[in-house]
Amino acid sequence: MVDREFRDDDRLRRTLPAHSTYWRRMSRLGVLLHGGSWREGCGETLVVKAATRGELQQVLGEDPYVQEHLVLETRIRALEALVEAAEQPPAAAPARPGPAGGSGPAGEAGPRTDAQLSAHEWRVARMMLAGLTNRQIAERFAVSPRAVEQHITRIYRKLSISRRAQLAVAIQGGLPRAGELAAAG
């Protein structure tokens, strides 16, 4: 799991086509599993398959944004650690402040408990984090893919996210919510 923040200048926009082409190729090769941008294109979350940290560094180093020195910060976390955090019962995790100034110190990390995911939504979220497709999740629960999509929609709404790639970070509490991004920008 890789979160990256970019330098916001003209080179970012000029390099975007090469950056997109590179990651489309990595996706076709099975290296990029999921990805999505955040903060108006000034950052992204990637789920990358790599056998070693060195292999991951090589994949990231070949990105045109890295070669153009446009990456300000990179945070790498093992997906297994995020899945384990997601498996913790929601009540056992510390609360994170909500948009209306909920409980807990500002910036406190940990799974979001204010989202109040149901037990079934936690099971679906863990399967998503494990890389299962909607169809595979539906087969495991013996329901239609549409039913799974409805669960995922509720999960996204409760966590204030819009992409599968943001799920692990949202559960871990590492990214601000959409409303917080608008207020900060």
Task: Name the descriptors.
48% helix, alpha+beta, four-stranded antiparallel sheet, 185 residues, disordered C terminus
Tell me about this structure.
- With 185 residues, this protein is of the alpha+beta class.
- It has helices at residues 10-28, 53-61, 64-67, 79-87, 119-129, 134-141, 145-159, 167-172, 178-184; strands at residues 2-6, 32-38, 43-48, 71-76.
- The chain starts with a strand and ends with a helix.
- Mean pLDDT is 75; it is low at 90-114 and 174-185.
How many DSSP H or I helices? 9
* Order of strands in the sheet with most strands: 2-3-1-4
How large a portion of the residues is in β-strands, by DSSP E? 5-15%
| Tally of strands | 4
Radius of gyration: 17 Å
Helix-strand category: alpha+beta
The shape is elongated
Q: What would the average pLDDT be, to the nearest integer?
A: 75
Instruction: Provide the helix percentage.
Output: 40-55%
pLDDT < 50 runs, ≥5 residues: 90-114, 174-185
